[in-house]
Amino acid sequence: MSAQSPSAQPLVSMRGIVKRFGDNVVLDGVDLDVFPGEVVVLIGPSGAGKSTLLRCINGLERISEGTITIDGDELTYAEGTINRIRSRIGMVFQSFNLFPHMTVASNIMMAQRDVLGRSAKEARSRALELLDRVGLVDKADAYPESLSGGQQQRVAIARALAMDPAVMLFDEPTSALDPELVGEVLHVMRELATAGMTMVVVTHEMRFARRAADRVVLMADRQIVEQGTPKEVLEHPSSERGQAFLRQLS
Ligand code: ADP
Ligand code: MG
């Protein structure tokens, strides 16, 4: 799954990241590399800074200190740079945020046309290809409200993939779903991982972490407190905070 090798250049590289909201320090010296093809699962208690970390990667939040490099391109907040970098990063949130007045296919076509300048024909053909991949090609001309939450989230994943991102970020993509709909979304994510997509996934689904992660990163109190293989981190956490977090999960 992982194309990681000592010589590979990280696709995402974060160094000395500090993020403050006013006087409140939310990230305090985070270093993180994500290598091409790697699946990194980010876990940790609520308020640890996981969402903020993801939002910093695609520039939705501005870092206070440190540097972020995406595929060798340093993230600055100049409009040209941030748009170029954002177009290389797909993001999937807890809430699916599909446009309710547009069909499923149109939702997936819009940014392809506006941002990538693809023709309607090209954009639709890519949309159908991706809908097929997430098992929803028969829903292309349906409206989001007629879909279940799990189906809507699969459409949101297809919409992010339509931009041909270098890396996909997921922020608790199954947390808003009824339990019986979680599996179909995780299944799509596992297939993406197997196909070699570079992914950073914030989730509380420990089975997903165990099965799909190349590396589990545990955050607590504004910092990365532990990282390693799923087995290392989930079964033999070495830090006190890691042990405490995992104890309260079981
Ligand atoms: P997690 O995703 O791990 O639960 P978050 O990154 O959402 O954690 O939040 C980390 C901390 O940052 C929390 O204390 C939260 O209240 C604070 N925070 C997040 N976003 C903002 C914001 N826009 N303004 C002020 N504080 C924020
Ligand atoms: Mg969060």
From TrEMBL:
Its EC number is 7.4.2.1. Residues 229-250 are annotated as: Disordered. PROSITE patterns: ABC_TRANSPORTER_1 (PS00211), ABC_TRANSPORTER_2 (PS50893). It is a peripheral membrane protein. GO terms for molecular function: ATP binding; ATP hydrolysis activity; ATPase-coupled polar amino acid-transporter activity. SUPFAM superfamilies: P-loop containing nucleoside triphosphate hydrolases. Residues 12-246 form the ABC transporter domain. It catalyses: a polar amino acid(out) + ATP + H2O = a polar amino acid(in) + ADP + phosphate + H(+). InterPro entries: AAA+_ATPase, ABC_ATPase_HisP-typ, ABC_transporter-like_ATP-bd, ABC_transporter-like_CS, MetN_ABC_transporter-like, P-loop_NTPase. It comes from the Bacteria. Keywords: Amino-acid transport, ATP-binding, Cell membrane, Membrane, Nucleotide-binding, Transport. The keyword Transport applies. One of its GO terms (cellular component) is plasma membrane. It is an enzyme of class 7 (translocase). Pfam families: ABC_tran (PF00005). It is found in: Cell membrane. Belongs to the ABC transporter superfamily. This is ABC-type polar-amino-acid transporter. It comes from Ornithinicoccus hortensis.
